[in-house]
Write a structure and sequence with these properties.
about 55 residues, single chain, alpha+beta
């Protein structure tokens, strides 16, 4: 069977680093922190107004 040449310690260290980086990436992208939204209102030529939120 093919052996990669990395020691058992190096494989475990690599796995821990990969998992922790993945968790950090997910938490930074999916954070529930306050989103900076602002309300935008648009008034058309016929006088109707539309309101929506923009990130």
């Amino acid at each position: 069977m093919y052996e990669s040449g990395l020691s058992k310690f190096a494989r475990i260290l690599f796995l821990i680093m990969a998992v922790s980086l993945g968790i950090i990436f997910i938490l930074s992208g999916c954070s529930l922190a306050e989103a900076a939204e602002q309300e935008v209102s648009i008034e058309t030529t016929d006088g109707t107004q539309h309101h929506f939120f923009w990130k």
